[in-house]
Amino acid sequence: MRHPRKALRASAVGAACAALLAGAALGTAPAAQATPGGQAAAARSASVRFTDIPGSGGITLKGNVFTPGGADGSRHPLIVLPTSWAMPQLEYVAQARQLADAGYVVVSYTSRGFWLSGGQIETAGPADVADSAAVIDWALAHTPADPRRIGMAGVSYGAGISLLSAGHDKRIKTVVAMSGWADLIESIYGERTQHRQAAELLGGLGKLTGRPSDELQRILKNFLSSDLSKEKEMLEWGAKRSPATYLNEINANGAAIMLGNAWGDTIFPPDQYAKFYERLTGPKRLELRPGDHATAEGTGLLGLPNDVWADGKRWFDHHLKGVDNGIDRERPVQLKSRTGGGYESYPDWAAVDRTRRTLPLEGTRTIRTGVDSGANGGTALLSNTLDQFLRLPPMVSVPLLPRAYTAVWESGPYPSAQRVRGSVRLHTTVTGEKESGTAIAYLYDVGPLGLGKLVSHAPYTFHGREPGRPFAVDLSLVATAYDVPAGHRLAVVVDSVDPLYVGHNSGGRLTFSSPAGDPSTLSVPVRG
To answer: What is the Cα–Cα distance from 6 to 503, expressed in whole angstroms?
Structure first.
């Protein structure tokens, strides 16, 4: 009989895969759109053909090509769409059709190692970047694509490949990267904590829909087994696949880059995107919305109205066609709160959390490790999707949390609403009884009855510490936009177990103290 936890994980992977494939199939339905001239898309319907495209290293990539209707011999701007992890070439059909009806040549292809494309899964390695260049070469030779106006876009895996390609191929002038990553290590190994559910989900989907390379299988095995002797290899592997590594090249090439992500992305959290955005020097835009991984742009893959794809098209129209649609005059950082309301605009990411209030975390708390207290960050892909559509984040009764396994601090009730925007920062002093340990910090919005709604959280892992010797910890919780209602409190909760992550506690206790010379605090970015 299969172990219940393994069976649950396998079922989750299978369900996620089925949902993604169903979405791709539904995405083939065309959606009515109006062209800039006011004519219906049907008046100049694009043609589509499925074709083999030569990839790098002699492999074949399965792709499709959408060409604008009414061919008159002129050249059209080109958009290349690499598929997401585990997705086939049907993924972008609905959006590709709409873009082609608007005058773009669109080439989408199944990333190497997945489905019927050749090769093995290299996880956005050099071969994947070489594939994107080969696809552009092919498109320029076999379609009416304009070599001076080339863009790339993608969701998740396709976003990462697009950003990496912008650092290696000067022909790419524009990128729209949705739910992707800039720093792969910070995304799945932030604060030296393995993101268990994210890694298992990606690994499971990879095996179900493709052919993982030996390197990928080795890295995943070492990652999940907590083999610290292999940490250096993993860090080097991740750096090679991180757009942030090639920031200088991306800036030198000057592509106009739009980044979109969700506050609750459990695979690629938004903070690493925001840091990358701040370091870009070319035309740029950052959009953050409620949701989980790829859920913000998911309806667009079905051909339904979608803000992410709509702004992506405006970005392409301006930077590839020269359309004066005003997107270059808007404040480039666009945020939407998880608790409702319209878009908020900012001149840069630093302006988002410029105003802060500091809460003292007084006294000493000692917890036993290795027991799940009930406070947790939810379930990958599920919890933050519920928050996006139903405003139901993970919840817990703060008064009922077992104090033997949780450290808890609470503010007083706020007389007015608190608009939390950006990254909450926790500073404290930790003393462990072992040389390694893991703690997870949570921030809750606590109502009058003690029910806490998760605002943000982050894990922290330490290794090689002298048992019994205190050390300072600075931890940034995942960035968010959340409005705490008047009369509610904020509660900081720390425990040692969360199903999202691999823990490194082997018994013993963790003590959180606030020395007089270095008091523990919570810095909350609050806007008036």
So the answer is: 17
